[in-house]
Design a protein that fits this description.
By secondary structure, the chain is an all-alpha fold. The chain has eight helices and no strands. Keywords: Membrane, Plasmid, Transmembrane, Transmembrane helix.
Length: about 230
């Protein structure tokens, strides 16, 4: 493999496709994360038809607004982690591949959950008919699928924490490392909110840390910088 130093383009040792896929997956993940965050704020303010606040169940409109970008985010995040693994130095691939494993677990859990909500639950809620689907209702802090959702995002936090170990350089690498680490450190707030609901506010910085991480990675791929070992 060609030895590369920080600041040299991927093209010297990696296909241009790696740069393109890495950039677009990171950019898409940023857009989907921001779209979800904006929707979540609107939901908590009661603008989507619910009573507002984190403990209120979503309306069909709220489910569509919140879960459509969230469903797309799962796949974008996995592809981004694959791209990170492709450009990681050999001695750092243990971190990138471990991050990918947790990222896949996250994507599987939330994709199943959100697809069920969008294709089964939301249409039935819109018709006012919830007979037979009670176990699949997405009730904050008090339903099976909400617990699955929390597990999924816990895996995302672990993936982010592991991916942060890939980046050891300065500049954009340091920014990506900080944002990824901050996202990973939200893990206790994610898990703990099932037991003490106000901890959800401690997880709220995700709306800044995660898009910050993915946009930093998008810029790294756009500039074609090889991560420093």
């Amino acid at each position: 493999m060609t030895t590369m130093t920080f600041g040299q383009p991927f093209a010297a040792g990696y296909p241009a496709a790696t740069r393109r896929v890495g950039f677009w997956s990171a950019a898409c993940a940023t857009v989907f994360a921001v779209a979800y965050a904006v929707g979540q704020i609107a939901e908590w303010l009661g603008w989507l038809g619910s009573r507002g606040g984190p403990e209120s169940s979503s309306t069909p409109l709220g489910l569509v607004v919140l879960l459509t970008p969230s469903l797309l985010l799962g796949s974008a995040f996995v592809v981004l982690l694959v791209s990170v693994d492709q450009v990681a130095r050999p001695e750092r691939k243990i971190w990138s591949q471990a991050a990918l494993a947790f990222g896949i677990a996250y994507a599987v859990l939330i994709s199943m959950n959100y697809f069920v909500q969008l294709t089964l639950v939301a249409p039935r809620l819109a018709r006012g008919d919830t007979r037979g689907i009670e176990p699949f209702l997405f009730v904050p802090f008090a339903s099976f699928l909400y617990a699955v959702d929390i597990l999924g995002y816990s895996f995302m936090s672990v993936a982010a924490l592991l991916a942060a170990r890939v980046f050891t350089g300065r500049g954009l690498e340091r920014r990506a490392r900080w944002f990824l680490t901050a996202t990973g450190l939200l893990l206790p707030f994610l898990v703990g909110q099932m037991y003490w609901h106000p901890l959800i506010w401690g997880a709220a910085p995700w709306a800044v840390t995660f898009p910050g991480a993915t946009w930093s990675l998008a810029l790294l791929f756009r500039r074609g910088e090889r991560v420093e070992g």
